[in-house]
Amino acid sequence: MLILSKDKILVDAPIARHGQNVGACLYFMGMVRNAPEDNHVKGIMYSAYDQMCHQVYKDFIQQMTDSFPDIIVEIIHRIGFVPVGEVAVLVSVSSSHRNKTFQVLEIAVEWLKKELPIWKKIIHEDDASEWKANFENS
Amino acid sequence: MIKIEVLLFAGIRDSIGQEKLQLNLTKGSTLKQLMDSMFQQYPEIKQLFLSCQFIVNCSIIDPDYELKDQDEVAVLPPLGGG
User: Which candidate in A49, A78, A89, A106 is best for mutational testing of the B interface (most B CBs within 10 A)?
Assistant: First the structure.
């Protein structure tokens, strides 16, 4: 499941959705931070190409299901303004056992940063702003 | 003539000041011709355009693709999700 949400992410929700056969669930939470190199950040404004997000996610999940049939992958990404300290993205990976979940979580996080058509504009405390692209390991 | 909608995002949207453009192109126009016409129309942001990916109907496609009436082109600046 891919959710593009204007609302605050409820971190308990994915576990409830993944069902009672789940024995292992991993989370990655990407937070909005006040990075020193970004000079007094108030928050990040996210925007997305919704239709394409869902289309590329569908293709990605098909590939994941083919390679890892027992695994559930869910991505929730905030859209709109997200203040410093809040969760901007939550990736959850569940399975009956922990095998492969660590590997799939890393694949999913790297995938979303490179392939999901979402953009971020850094909003500074003085309300100046700038678009910022992802780079490797960012 | 064919009608093409061009969706703009992030810095490109801010620079042009519109979410989308409606273009009327000659039948047989290619994606590359559309890109070239945008470079000419907005020369001040050509460098920004050159960092973008032009896609059609949510798919990466060859610049020689012959556009069809009602195709949706999107101009995607470098991504920043997460």
Answer: A49
